[in-house]
Amino acid sequence: MEAKVLALVSERDSLAIVADRLARDAEDESAGLLETGALGGSEDGEEGEEPSSVTILAFDDDALAEEVRTMAPWVDHILLAVFGQEITSGRPWCTRWPEHDEALARIHHCWLAWQELTDSRSGATGPSIWQRDHLEPLLLKLRAADGPFGACTTNPDHPHHRLLPAPPFTDPDALPRVGEPRTSV
Question: pTM (2 decimals)?
C-alpha cells in the first residue's frame, strides 16, 4: 500500500511539472499573439526569440539539461511505470537514456506529443492517437535488439552501458555534382 501511495505521489508530481509547463506554454503563446497584434495588443514588446526548433537535439546545452530534467519524471513514472515495465535482454532499457541521442530525441518527441494529445482540447481520441502513433512506435524502436539500447544490459548484477558508434559520414565522392549526369548502380 505504501509503495502504491509513493508511486501515486510521484506521478502527481510529474503531472504537476507537465501542467506547469503547459501553463507556461499557454502564457507564452498568448503573449506571442499579443505581440503580433493577433489579440489586439501592440507589437512593441520585445520578448525572447522563439526557438528555431522544438527538437531537443537543436537545444543549447543549458536548455537541453532543463528539458531533460523536466521530462525525466514523465519517463520514469508514466512511460516506464505504465508502458515499459517488463525489461528483458530482448526488450532492453537503459537507465542512462539521455546519453543516447537517438533515444533522447525519440523520447522527447513522444513526450511533446503526449502533452498535446492528452490535453482536454485534443478530444476523447487524443490519448488513443498518442498511444497508436507515438508510444507504440517509440517502444518498438527503442527496445528492439538493434535499437539504441541494444548494446546496454539491464542485469543489476552486471550492468553495462555502451553508446553505439555513429556510422561514417557520407562519402563526398557519392554526392551528385551540378552539371554532371548522375550514375546509378
Answer: 0.64
